[in-house]
Amino acid sequence: MEVQKFYVLPKLPYDYKGLEPFMSEEQLRIHHTKHHQAYVNGANNILQKLDKAHKEGLEIDIKATLKELSWNIGGHLLHSLFWENLAPPSTNTKMPGGLLGDVIVKEFGSLERFKKEFSQAAISVEGSGWAALTYCMQTSRPLIMQIEKHNTNVYPMFRILMVLDVFEHAYYIDYKNDRAKFVENFWNIINWDTIAKRFEELVK
Ligand code: MN
Q: In CATH, what is the architecture of 25-84?
């Protein structure tokens, strides 16, 4: 098997029109082919720089390099999760099934309450960042996380079940500065099946 030493932009599991009318073709295409691609390229450039430095014994600014690497790898991995937890509105299931549905209701009281808290988390991210539903394997509790930028406030060892990108670049073409409207419409294109499968993989 060929070892993959660099990151690759994943293909979307739907076409660029697939999330309309809640995410336009133009919005999705730019987000995927420009923004996500830039994190892939950024991470790969730094890895190549590290390869060269290690091979030739060159000095590097480790602190700056690692910071930039974390920004780019975090961006790439979060976007990869994001595309997979979206789905065309016609296939939207409205409810998380199975074990995931049970654990959400047990923790938050109801699905509606969870959606409200998650939306509030997403809307109130300061500047650029993400909302994430995560799961702590030590306490067996799902927890909402606010991620600043791509890489700050991530709890080590917590597993990420679903994410929502609230960088302006994720919604500006469709919603201008109305992040709340974008977050409201996110629930129309969420892929609960994928999220439920991620959870079942963790706890099986
Ligand atoms: Mn993004």
A: Orthogonal Bundle (1.10)
Q: Where are the domains of the chain?
A: 25-84, 89-203
45 CB-contact burial (10 Å; exposed 0-12 / middle 13-18 / buried 19+):
middle
**What pTM was computed for the model?**
0.94
Ligand 1 centroid – CA 6 distance (Å)? 20
Cα 183 to ligand 1 centre (Å) = 14
144's enclosing H/E stretch is: strand 141-148
pLDDT tens readout for residues 70-86:
999 999 999 999 999 99
Domain spanning 89-203, CATH architecture: 3-Layer(bab) Sandwich (3.55)
139 CA → ligand 1 middle, Å: 30
